[in-house]
Amino acid sequence: MADHNHSQSQHLYFILTGIPGLEQKYYWMAFPLGAIYVIALFGNGVIISTIKSESSLHIPMYYFLCMLAFADMGLTLCTLPSMLGIFWFNYKFITFDGCLVQMYFIHTFSAIESGVLVAMAIDRVIAIWSPLRYGTILTNGVVCKIGMLILSRAVCVVFPVPFLIKRLPFYRSNILSHSFCLHQDVMRLACASTRVNSLYGLIAVIFTKGSDSLSILISYVFILRTVMAIASGEGRLKALNTCVSHICAVLIFYVPLIGVSVIHRFGKHLSPLTHALMANAYLLVPPVLNPIVYTVKTKEIRKKIIQIFIRTKITTEG
After folding, report:
1. Domains defined for the chain, CATH in brackets
2. DSSP three-state, residue 221
3. Rounded mean pLDDT of the chain?
4. What is the CA radius of gyration of the chain?
5. Pick from 183, 178, 207: which is nearest to 197 by CA?
């Protein structure tokens, strides 16, 4: 009988929250938000198509960039339905199972992006430490295996999370703090002990983001030691210049991530607006800024974008 009552009171859906305090301005915010999604999808799509079509970019460095663009597109597509539903149509409901699916894919693509950033750091280490053996060490087969390892790790580590949430009862508040489902946000609404969820979440973060950030840090210590051993100042500058885009991508990903983690853990006294803005920055900033950074630094990608606009203009005029 108790089990029957529990199943009857279990929430069938959650209510998503947009940006608290700005509900009256959603109509005007819908347009820039739509533009952000267009930029993210278009920018990452151009990077993928350029790397695919330009034979000069068929090297490990750009294969990893292609993986990063796929992860960014995945993150963008995960949040797009619920974000646009809120800001364009004022539709704030998401089913319980739909929330679990969105949560799984958000955290999976985030883990993939973190793993790709490590692979890109290792790529830079090999390119600077042993440029003559770069092609023989990072062969297409090795790059493919690294990509499969990154994907497998993300899928397996995040896989238990929805099932750990599914077992919890939810029959009080069903109002989430964000415009999408995150593990920490859904977990706090549970009406039972979440110790197992918290412990597994901590282990998963340490195994992915924690170990990845440490690996990137160690890689750059090694890079700096190698660069400092180069005799000429011009050679040192040239070597470091090849790392600028990757350093920007690391900062773009990890700064919002650390901000969201700190706020969830220690910022309970902060306004809901701060929580919402940091969570949105965590998921929207990397997919938008990464293509811009790599477009500025990669001549072939710039040429591809120019060709697209020229072709569009000729078609329109014709």
Report:
1. 17-317 (1.20.1070.10)
2. helix
3. 87
4. 22
5. 183
